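Bug report

Summary: structure tokens for F-box domain-containing protein differ between web form and batch submission.
Environment: batch mode, default settings.
Steps: 1) Submit the sequence below via batch. 2) Compare with the web form result.

Sequence submitted:
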Amino acid sequence: MQMDDLMSRDLISDLPQSIIESILTRLPIRDAVRTSILSSKWRYKWATLTQLVFDEKCVILSNDRCKVEDGLVNFITRTLFLHQGPIHKFQLTTTHLQCCPDIDQWLLFLSRNDIKELVLELGEGEWFRVPSCLFNCKKLTRLDLFRCEFDPPPSFKGFLCLKSLNLHQVLVSPEAIESLISGCPLLESLALSYFDSLALTIRAPNLKFLCLEGEFKDICLENTPLLVAMSVAMYMTDDIAEHFEQSSTCNFTRFLGGVPRLERLIGHIYFTKFLSIGDDVGRLPITYAHLKVVELNQVSFEDMKEILVVLRLITNSPNLRELQISGSSNTLAAIDAPDLDFWEDECPSNCTFKQLRVVRMTDMSGVPHEMEFIKFLLANSPALETMSISPCVYVMDGRLNMLIELLRFRRASAQAEILFIQD
């Protein structure tokens, strides 16, 4: 074949439709639509895309908000009007169309086009009320809603194909959330964030990934046997703290007593406080044989019940590889902490962290129970490679004493390196 013939052939246009769609999907939707001007062959190639992702880059931004809103609405409406075939993914990320009636029409259109993934990420302003047509999207596998009002009709039984659910600042009743979760038998990933005073029981037999963030009055994992990773951040008001203190049930057992396959656990603010409330932790009903990474933030080392929660968790995790803990001790209270016999009474004499390689301790104050905890880890971690310790910013005078005491501790691992990190 002559070079001139190769140059004259339109090699891209002759590619299989699946490859062309893969190329167009990687372009911003505005650029994908603009390929229609390339030639007659390309006029409607974009129109069969199954993934449509819209944001404010779809239009030319200006200081005239109304002009931007009108331009975005017209672009999305025209794109949907000219589209051919199924739409498997629709994503809208914008701060301009918070409560736009056109969104209702788009969702009605999508509910008739085999929509599988729906992401509505709307900004500040009046909350968008999700229309009832959304609950007719029987093939949904992913649903992400940001700043929406969500009220399923009484006849709604759940999304039978849904695998991922993310609700961020969504107005919805606790009963509706629990019913929704229970009505999604294939649910594998659940994220709930910025909820107020929410009491929640989660029943999701196929759930693998869980992220919770907000003011939770109560959380119970009643049926989550396949859970492998979770991240929990709890914000505690005075009312919720009082509610917690009156609780008699053991939160540790209710929350972590039925997750034997857990591999990664991240607990943020107030998480260990929440787990410590209720009856004495005592013996745990399960061993976390798969748990490899634990991160616990703002552990109060003057609270013996919080310390016990940490000990019970890690001593029941025989394959733990990485441990990260940050402190939040009231230094004056923790310095006077009584009952240092606690460590002999509560730490198993035969405990060995055979797989533990990396330990990070941050915001340490050098108070007695913190130091005893570090001493316990060093003495029982024969495979330890690195322990890094960062004192909190308020500890200045005691840093040298902390370092001297650390160097005296016996290490089960001859290779263990202690890094004392001072910012």
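Above is the batch result. After comparison, the two runs are identical; trailing whitespace caused the diff. The two ends are 67 Å apart (CA to CA). The first strand starts at residue 51 and ends at 55.
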